[in-house]
């Protein structure tokens, strides 16, 4: 009998030059077990060629093509896109380049079809690039990059930016291995989430914060200053406070 995994292996043809391996040391938030690492088989895979109505283009070739992912994960990407378009003020999405979704490799939620790597997003009103390797320290591009990161972090607890490691200098990785299909919250001990907070503090709100990846006093002070100026009373550790902070970052 041919195993389901073998069938999937035979069908795996989409090349993936983005992240294929994730660190297995990232602690999960308190309310969920750490499920990063190990091998997994997707529940189901569907082919998709758009996100938020915008055609997907493989970043490496520049050619429009379809990718595969868990059907519920595709719905999640579309829900994220609607939220991003409504808050960012950039207008409808016209084109998204990507390094891919499903790929049959261990130690990554790509293997479950529940991960996606963003390259460049083109809207009617402007472009947002995840290609830190190309734009470097350009302040305007960094601002948009971290606004996008904030938007993604609201929907995907595991949002990996260029601050995470060199593998992510050309894309932002998202997966819902930790957050599933529930709303996200903030865990102070998550290095991944603290990096998003610190990037937003520095490059969207223009305040000093270290890029330490730990929720230290300076970061806490900067977040409080931003919350006060925006009238956000819910703390970051409560889901409404986390989402209000991220929404404010996306609006800029
Ligand atoms: Zn990835």
UniProtKB/TrEMBL annotation:
Sequence ranges assigned to domain Extensin-like C-terminal in this UniProt record: 108-176
Signal peptide region: 1-17
Keywords, ordered alphabetically: Signal
Keyword Signal: yes
Record Pfam families: Extensin-like_C
The protein, known as: Extensin-like C-terminal domain-containing protein
Biological source species: Tessaracoccus flavus
């Amino acid at each position: 009998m041919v195993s389901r995994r073998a069938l999937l292996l035979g069908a795996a043809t989409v090349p993936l030059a983005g992240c294929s391996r994730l660190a297995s040391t990232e602690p999960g938030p308190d309310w969920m077990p750490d499920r990063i690492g190990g091998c997994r088989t997707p529940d189901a895979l569907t082919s998709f060629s758009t996100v938020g109505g915008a055609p997907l283009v493989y970043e490496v070739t520049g050619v429009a093509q379809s990718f595969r992912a868990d059907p519920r994960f595709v719905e999640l990407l579309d829900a994220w896109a609607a939220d991003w378009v409504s808050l960012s003020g950039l207008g409808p999405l016209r084109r998204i380049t990507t390094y891919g979704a499903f790929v049959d490799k261990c130690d990554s939620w790509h293997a479950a079809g529940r991960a996606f790597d963003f390259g460049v997003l083109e809207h009617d009103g402007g472009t947002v690039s995840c290609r830190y390797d190309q734009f470097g320290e350009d302040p305007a591009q960094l601002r948009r990059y971290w606004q996008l990161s904030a938007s993604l972090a609201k929907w995907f607890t595991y949002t990996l930016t260029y601050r995470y490691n060199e593998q992510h200098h050309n894309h932002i990785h998202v997966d819902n291995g930790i957050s599933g299909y529930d709303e996200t919250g903030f865990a102070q001990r998550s290095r991944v989430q603290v990096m998003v907070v610190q990037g937003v503090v520095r490059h969207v709100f223009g305040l000093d914060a270290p890029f330490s990846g730990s929720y230290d006093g300076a970061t806490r002070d900067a977040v409080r200053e931003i919350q006060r100026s925006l009238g956000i009373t819910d703390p970051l550790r409560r889901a409404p406070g986390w989402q209000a902070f991220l929404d404010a970052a996306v609006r800029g």
